[in-house]
Amino acid sequence: MSKDKPAKIPTPQPVRGTQDMLGDFADRFAHVVETFERVRRLYGFKRVEVPVIEPTAVFARSLGETTDVVSKEMYSFDDRGGDSITLRPEFTAGIARAYITNGWQQFAPLKVATHGPLFRYERPQKGRYRQFHQLDAEVLGSDSPLADAELLVFADQLLKELGIAEGVILTLNTLGDAASRDAWRAALVEHFMGHRGDLSEDSLARLDKNPLRILDSKDPRDRPIADSAPDIDAFLTSEAQDFFGAVTAGLDAAGVAWERNARLVRGLDYYRHTAFEFVTDRLGAQGTVLGGGRYDGLIENLGGPPTPAVGWAAGIERLAMLVGAAPRDFVEFVLIPVGGEAEALCLKLQSVLRRKGLACDMGYKGNIKKRMQRADATGAVAAIIVGGDEMRDGEITVRHLGSGQQARRTLAEIGDARVGATHTRRLLLEGIDGNSWSNE
């Protein structure tokens, strides 16, 4: 009588719209983040951290109850205390909430930057995920057009230092001040009401609450109507014209190329003045790689004091897709012990080298040949071999993996914790790497 086979445990699968990263893409992802961290320091932006979860009201009040993000895409749930909690779908609202609740007004104008995961329940596609990651930079408490210009120059330098600025265009528009926007909005409503019978269902729904969003509708039925709608330029106050002129003058002075896009809008009423996107045709339908604008009414909308602010965000995955080969993480030296006593010695030597700042690893398994092959595959500069002969003589054998040359070194000198990384590297490689160290 045969025994029943145990039920096969199902293999767990990732949540749809999420991804695991290892290897090349993980390297490119990390390269984007590291470059952002380096550039934001050049511009004096302070690192800030905000929670992944916020009260749902933070996003409902900032993004608008009628937006697709709030009505269809947010991951919201009631916690055990009965409070409605949401996984953050974007950074700006949480930073604005933190600005209010922590009294950061005392530091205004405040330049902050962050990065991390965000969550939206939307249809996954190339460059779009349900858990995705963004870079974010904000200037809070400044009404100067120079803040807008600095943020744009920051973004431009980031793209250039990532090596992806080729084919990426900064498109720019002004939404004017409150008076300009109100006058333009009224004119747009009148225009769209005259074509009400020809608008798509989505645009009809937006007509009352969010008429500016009809301008960037992708529905073919809306395009002729949107294209014939009045531009904001006819409604700009002199103050709004001067503000936009100062932003573009700042970009010109910094050597940042830009193009005007009079149809670039932000639908929510707290947006003012500058709106911008860096766009490319290299990512298919998801062509925006970085975007933002000025949101002078948001903090007030969340219950804080009237506070001008401007910011941008960029998808890390999208930037990583544009980045070429990223700098690889590699170890300089791979230690190969032969025998148990050698393993203990290599562990000690490895710790000393790492504390000096030299990246190293250890080959644990296999014969010498296989471990040397694995060391070579990592991209290491040299292998450090410790066997019985080396142990007896108080030495190590260093084999340069490029030239194939090798030499013995004194273990005491290499392992001296007082000797720095540069001098230790020289001691290890001198005479076997083909370089002259006479000028060091």
UniProtKB/TrEMBL annotation:
NCBIfam families: hisS. This is Histidine--tRNA ligase. Its EC number is 6.1.1.21. It catalyses: tRNA(His) + L-histidine + ATP = L-histidyl-tRNA(His) + AMP + diphosphate + H(+). Residues 32-337 form the Aminoacyl-transfer RNA synthetases class-II family profile domain. Signal peptide: none annotated. It is found in: Cytoplasm. One of its GO terms (molecular function) is histidine-tRNA ligase activity. Keywords: Aminoacyl-tRNA synthetase, ATP-binding, Cytoplasm, Ligase, Nucleotide-binding, Protein biosynthesis. CDD domains: HisRS-like_core. The keyword Protein biosynthesis applies. Belongs to the class-II aminoacyl-tRNA synthetase family. Homodimer.
